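@channel sequence for tomorrow's demo:
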Amino acid sequence: MLIGHAQPRQMFLDALGSGRLHHAWLLAGPKGIGKRAFADWAALKLLSGGTGPGDTPADDPAAQLVAAGSHPDHRILTPPLEGKGSATESIVIDQVRALADFLHSYPAIAGWRTLIVDSIDDMNPNTANAFLKELEEPRQKTVYLLVSHAPARLLPTIRSRCRMLRLFPLADAEVRQVLDGGDNGFGAAEVDSMVALARGAPGSVVAFAGADIAGLDKALDRIAAGGDAAALARSVQPQAAGPKLQALLALVPQRLALAARRNPDPRLLDLHAEAEGLARDAVRLAYDRAQVAMALADIVARAGRI
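C-alpha cells (generated this afternoon):
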C-alpha cells in the first residue's frame, strides 16, 4: 500500500491522462520514504488501466498476477540475491541483457509494459551504459520506473532521458500509519520512538523491530549524564542483537543533530560528524560490535559535557 506522496501521485496521473506519458520516470528522494512503493503503485496503475489516486484493489487481475510474480508485462530489476554481482550488491550487465526480449516487444495482455529498477544507483558504469541504450530506444507503451536515492551521481545521459519525480519525507502521521500497518513487528510502545527516529522515512527503521528503542534512549541518557557504557556494549554483542546495533547507529547521530540544533556549538557539530562517520563505516567494515558501542557511548558522553 502506498501512503502519502499525494502530489507526485497526481502528477503521474495527470501525465497518464494527458496521453503523453514519458517513457522513463526517475523517482528521486531519500532512502526509506516509499519510492519503491510508489513505483509499485504506478506500475499497477498502468497494468490495470486504473486512473484514480488510490491503490489498485488486491483482487484486480493485474494485481494478482504481479503479486504472484507472473505478469507477462511486468519486470523488476534488482541486484541478484546470490551469484555474480551479489557480493557488491550491484545490478550486473547480464541482467540488463537478459531483459532485451522483454523490452523490445509489445505488451501481451495489458496496455503497457513496465520495468521497475530498484535501484538504478546500484548499476556499475558498464551496466549503466548498457541500460542507457535501452532508454535511448524505448519501445512504445513501455514505461521505466527508476528508483534513485542519489540522482546526482547517475550518468547525466541517463538523467537527461528521464522525467524526474521528486518524493519527499512523509509527515509523522503518515510514518505512524506505515509503522502501524502490516506486519512490521512493532509494539504500541515502540511506535512513538520509531516515528521520531524515522524522520519521515519509515523504511529506514523497519529493521529495528524488537530493538527496544526506549531502552536504548534511557541507556544513552545515563551515559550522557556520566554513566557507564559497559552494559550497552554487552547488549549489542550477541549475533541476534543486530537490530539493536543498527538502531544505535541511527539513534546516536540523531541525538547529536537535535543537540546541535538546540545549542549550535561547533563541538557538537564535530561530534555529530564523528558519529555519522562511525555509523557509516561500522557495518561496511565489520567493526567489533562492542567497540562500536563503546565509541558511540564516548561520543555521547563528550556531548553531555558540553
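heads up for whoever presents: The chain has a mean pLDDT of 90.
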